[in-house]
Each structure stands twice: as C-alpha cells, then as structure tokens.
Design a protein that fits this description.
The protein is mainly beta. The longest helix is centred in the last third of the chain and has 11 residues, at about 480-490. The protein is built from three helices and 41 strands. Strands 17, 18, 19, 20, 21, 22, 23, 24, 25, 26 and 27 form an eleven-stranded mixed β-sheet that branches. Strands 28, 29, 30, 31, 32, 33, 34, 35, 36 and 37 form a ten-stranded mixed β-sheet that branches. A hairpin with a 5-residue loop joins strand 38 (about 495) and strand 39 (about 505). It starts with 8 loop residues before the first helix and ends with a strand. The protein has five domains: about 10-120, Immunoglobulin-like, CATH 2.60.40.3620; about 140-235; about 275-355, no CATH class; about 365-485, Sandwich (Immunoglobulin-like); about 490-525, no CATH class.
C-alpha cells in the first residue's frame, strides 16, 4: 500500500470543527440530488470512520454549500487504488478531483478514515476484482410501454459502446418519450444538454436525465457510449439513410502539455500526423506532471480536446491505456515516459490509444534553485548530496523572505518540486517552512517554499519519492534569527548596577546590586 505524509493543517482544522463527511456523485446511496454540493449525502463518523455506498464516481468533502465551498475542503485519491481480492485501498490528499470507482457497475461500500488519511472500498458478496460484469443496456419508452429489460430492445455491446438498429423506428407523440437504462431504474440516461438529439450529431446524456422526445426513423442505428463516472453520449445515424455517419474531425491536431520538448507552450506543441479521422504521434516524451491535451491550432484561443475529467490518472492494461476524448481543456494525466498516441474520431465517440514506448532515464542529481541564485536551473554551488533517496545540503545562512524549489540538475524545468498548496499557475502563493517540520513536496507544484525568517546553519533534507502519486518530503533544520539573538545574549557577561542605577564595573562582594543577565533583571548580592 502506498503511503504518503500528508501535511494539511488547514484541512484538519476544518475537519475537527465539522466531524461530518459530505458525498455527491452519480449514484451515491441516499443522496438527495446528484452532483449537488449543497444537497449531498451527510455521513457522521462512527468508530473513527465514515461509511457510505456508491455506484460509479463521486466526490467527498468536509464542507458543503457552493462548489467553491465544497471543492475548497475536498479530498481525492493520492494515487491509484491498491486492489486486493475483495477490497481496495488508497491514501487521500487535499484536492477537488473526482474519486473513480475501483470497479464499474457495482454498488460498493466505502469507508473513509475520519482523519481523512485513507479510503477503503469493499465489494459486495460474490464479487472480486477483475470479475465485474459488463452492464446490459436497453431502449425503453412509451413505444414499448416502458417495459424493463425488454429483450427486443437490448443493445449490442462492444466494450463500452452499445448499438441497436431500430427496424420500425421510434415514433414519439406529444407527452411521450424514451430513455436508455440497464434493465432497471438503478441506472438510466436521458437529456444531458439543451435541446434534443439530432441524427448525425453526438449528444451528451445525463444519468437520471429527462425523457428524450426525438422520433427516430425506421432503420436508424442508435449508438450509446457508456462512460462510467463521466459523460455518456448518444448518436443516432442518419435516419436509416445508409452510408457512413459524418464524423466531426479537426483539420489538424497538436499535442501540448508537460513535454520534454515543450512545457505547455502552444507555439512549440507537437503536430500529429493525420490520416482521415485518425491522428498519430510517436515517441512523445512526458515529464514532470506528465499531463497533456490536444490543440486544434498553436493557440490557446482555438478549440481543444481532452479527457472526461481534468487531470484524472489514466489506467493502463499492460502497456496500453484507452481514453475517451471530448471537446474541452481537461488534461489527461499519465506517468513520465515515452508514448505513442493514436487518436481516432468516430461516430460513437473519440478514443485515444496511449501506448508506452519506453522509459525515461531518471536524473539522479538534484539542486536547489530560488531567489538566492536568481532561479538558476542547474547551479553546481547548490547541488545536494545524495544518499539513496535522501538528499541534503547545508547552507551557512538563508535570508528572510527567500523562496526556493528543488529540481533535477539539468538545464530545463522538466522536473521540479514545490510545496503542497492551492493549485494554480505561476502566481500561486509560496508556502512558509517551519523548522524541523516535514513538508510535502510535489512535482510540478507552482507553490514555492518560503523561508520567512533568516535561518543560520541551515540543513535542507529532501526525501525523494519515485512515484508521482506519492509526495516527496522536505525538512529544514537550523537556527532561526530569534534563537540566534537569544543565544548571543545568553553568552554575554552580566552587567551590574548600584541601587541608583549607575553601572559598576567591579562589584564588591557582599554588596546588593541590580544585575542584568541576558536581558533578565534581578537584585543580587555579589559574591
């Protein structure tokens, strides 16, 4: 099981005042409304744990209200699920990402430690990991008298894409409609955006959405793409007109993100090769946060494509991961390494095949960079001493208001570690260090470490994590400016004054004097 030191004082303060957990998602048992931060499932701690049940993805927080309130106190997985036979566990960290289910289409019991350090998922009886059944989906509506699990309306699965050809079509009269469900009302899909589905156009669905009122011509094919925990989609073919369904494919596509050759810079994004509706790129080297998405032009002002959920870790089956791609700026997050990418635009949905193409040689040497050396990228004077995964450096004095980071000893910013703090951009606030107190350090963090007061004889110790989902740890020891002043004062000789306040350089034994010792004044008889 992966473990990480979580230094979240602000969040723990909020938790101690709340003692309740708030949960919202697609199918959270007992929640008043789906994905509503003001109407969540409220869970009270029992025996040091919060317990609830959910099917699919969800979010957890120790505050409810607006999305800002909820996300500001939310927690997400610190890494990936560590799966056993019937249980899966993960550590938690502050963050507003969705928590993905370790097994799709199954109602799972979750327990969360009330210190928000870890989460456990327990499968129902008869299930074990790797054996989750694929769900069945059916058309249902007035046309078949809303008959559940109607065999004549069962869709044909191919992975997460389901199709059915409606030979007689679907005629919708006033006040009627139709939906897609899993043979029961545990999971159903309807309207997910303004307007109704139009033949030949991809349409977003919503779990529990209102009935659809589009009539479907005889011979049309309905394609349903089920994205558990994300946005599922519907496509109706051109009303039985035959031929290929039109696919909206951009003229060109670029890879942009945490690349070895270009760090989120549109002007130097990598142009993909295009062959019809398929785009490819080979040996794309991801570094640092290893996240990316796709541009339709070398500009932030043009349309983009990304994942269903921003910065959600992709899941690999061996060396390959399949990722659903939708319009938008959500980043796709992998691990540092080289990849071949194949992005296919299709009527049933857009899919990225991400295939590992090789490992990146890890740069072992680390350096400090900061305001003290004008943020030099590879300053040999600040190279840290390595002992396994532990790096140290001793500096005679670090001045007050100094900001710094740890980075790899190379002439680029591909890999650097900053403090744990609010996510943001280059304007993110620095986080003050406390002497002898370990702090989390994350690759790609925009938050600098801040030395608020001068520290002398400073030793910085950095414990490097080789897992991007687990924090590295930084600790500073030394003497603060206040401690230094007190030490100097303590070593100063005592000062003697007579009772009239006049200083006496040679006090006489047996006489009463006013004595100043390191700032502490008392009356003493000289000996």
């Amino acid at each position: 099981m992966k473990k990480t030191l979580l230094m979240m004082a602000a969040a723990l303060t909020a938790w101690s005042a709340s003692a309740q957990l708030y949960v919202t998602g697609d199918n959270v048992e007992g929640q008043p409304a789906a994905w509503d931060p003001a109407n969540t499932l409220v869970v009270t701690s029992e025996n040091g744990e919060y317990s609830f049940e959910a099917t699919g993805g969800f979010k957890i927080s120790i505050a409810q209200g607006t999305w800002d309130d909820f996300n500001g106190a939310a927690y997400q997985l610190a890494g990936t699920w560590d799966k056993g036979t019937t249980t899966a566990t993960s550590t938690l960290r502050q963050g507003d990402g969705n928590i993905t289910t370790p097994m799709s289409n199954v109602k799972i019991k979750y327990t969360v430690k009330d210190d928000m350090s870890a989460i456990t998922a327990t499968l129902p009886a008869g299930y074990s990991f790797g054996e989750a059944p694929a769900p069945d989906f059916y058309l249902i509506g007035n046309f078949n008298n809303w008959t559940l699990a109607d065999a004549a309306c069962k869709m044909t699965p191919n992975g997460n894409v389901y199709t059915i050809t409606v030979a007689d079509g679907i005629t919708v009269a006033a006040g009627e409609g139709w939906k897609i469900n899993n043979g029961s009302w545990d999971l159903d899909f309807g309207q997910g955006e303004e307007g109704m589905p139009v033949a030949g156009t991809l349409y977003n669905l919503a779990s529990g959405g209102a009935d659809m009122t589009t009539s479907v011509a005889a011979g049309s094919t309905i394609t349903f793409t089920y994205n558990e925990g994300g946005v599922s989609t519907l496509l109706i073919s051109s009303n039985g007109g035959g031929g290929d369904t039109p696919v909206d494919t951009p003229a060109q596509l670029y890879v942009v993100g945490s690349l070895a050759t270009s760090m989120w810079e549109p002007a130097t994004a990598v142009l993909m090769n295009k062959d019809g509706n398929v785009f490819t790129a080979t040996d794309i080297e991801l570094v640092g946060e290893a996240n990316f998405n796709f541009l339709t032009a070398q500009s932030w002002d043009e349309p983009r494509y990304g994942g269903l959920v921003d910065n959600e870790d992709v899941t690999f089956d061996g060396d390959v991961a399949m990722v659903t791609i939708v319009p938008g700026a959500n980043a796709i997050k992998a691990l540092p390494g080289k990849y071949n990418m194949t992005l296919t635009f299709a009527a049933g949905g857009n899919t990225l095949k991400l295939e590992k193409a090789g490992e990146i040689a890890v740069v072992e040497d680390l350096v400090l960079t900061g305001s003290f050396n004008e943020w030099a990228m590879n300053d040999a004077a600040y190279k840290m001493t390595k002992d396994g995964d532990i790096y140290t450096i001793t500096i005679p004095s670090i001045e007050a208001d100094t900001q710094f980071k740890v980075k790899t000893a190379e002439d680029n910013w591909n890999t650097s570690w900053g403090a744990e703090g609010p996510e943001g951009d280059e304007s993110a606030p620095a986080v003050a260090v406390t002497l002898n107190t370990p702090m989390n350090a994350w690759t790609g963090s925009f938050n600098n470490f801040l030395v608020a007061e001068t520290i002398t004889n400073a030793t910085i110790t950095f414990v490097r994590s080789n897992d991007a989902s687990v924090a590295s740890v930084l600790t500073i020891s030394g003497t603060s400016a206040i401690e230094a002043v007190e030490a100097v004062a303590a070593e100063a000789p005592a000062q003697y004054f007579n009772l009239q306040g006049i200083r006496v350089l040679a006090p006489q034994a047996g006489q009463l004097y006013i004595v100043n010792r390191a700032g502490k004044v008392s009356k003493e008889i000289a000996r």
